[in-house]
Amino acid sequence: MGEIKSGEKTRVLVVGATGYLGKRFVRAFLAEGHVTYVLQRPEIGLDIEKVQLLLSFKKLGARLVEASFSDHQSLVSAVKLVDVVVSTMSGVHFRSHNILVQLKLVEAIKEAGNVKRFLPSEFGMDPSRMGHALPPGRETFDQKMEVRQAIEAAGIPYTYVVGACFAAYFTGNLSQMETLLPSKKEVNIYGDGNVKVVFADEDDIANYTSKTLNDPRTLNKTVYVRPPNNVLTHIELVQIWENLTGNELEKTNITAKDFFSNIEHMEIPQQAGIGHFYHIFYEGCLTDHEVGKDEEASSLYPDVKYKRMDDYLRMFL
């Protein structure tokens, strides 16, 4: 499992390519010049949006490769085509929760024996720091750790990309839980609103990930997406919106106790979301540890001009 030689084009397989992050990754990899393969699963059935997305990838230059998680040999054949495998399978409770399906991918990569790098589905909170997380949301972190342990036990070279709140879910809505659009009148502030949080445009996460695939500096390492201008408190995020609109919002500070007050009456996905928000906004799990320049994406790849959150919020004006 040697490194990719410089000058050679990296061949990469994207698993979960039609998903929320996956489609951005495919476009980023193609733009970077990687030879990009996309896993096409027969289970797609009559899902017209996914079929059309796959055809649009083909038009951009991606190569479709058929394989199924229920057919081990088909997975082995697919991963034998490439140097790098990137998984973007969903790990959130309100969408599909497929983290452990990746164990089948680990088995296929292990048998194929040619893959020089595997990037499992991560891209959010660092699961290795979330051993204390609240149920049921902790299932996401426990399962991601199970996948990591399988990767490392199999001796598969890896990169883990972690560390930021997706802007579409956390910035446009000023981090309010029941909407994806910014409020015109009032806003809930978590705690005192002074805990530092990391926000990132999903396309930037894709671009950073694309850069790591064949970078010897990121081999068997965790890369944190923590662009310095996007490390903001909840209050600072709200103030950016207020400055853009010239309109001050009515703020209500929500104590941790109040934040959890109705949790037992909620469905499991909502309970998981409450737990994740608590770790981010009350505990500060994204910023409560130092990250060196050699492990932070915007330092490693200064040529990626990442979107700042004031620019992101301008879309909503």
From TrEMBL:
Coiled coil: none annotated. InterPro entries: NAD(P)-bd_dom_sf (IPR036291), NmrA-like (IPR008030), NmrA-type/Isoflavone_red_sf (IPR050608), PCBER-like (IPR045312). One of its GO terms (molecular function) is oxidoreductase activity. It comes from the Eukaryota. Keywords: NADP, Oxidoreductase. CDD domains: PCBER_SDR_a (cd05259). SUPFAM superfamilies: NAD(P)-binding Rossmann-fold domains. Residues 9-313 form the NmrA-like domain. Pfam families: NmrA. This is NmrA-like domain-containing protein.
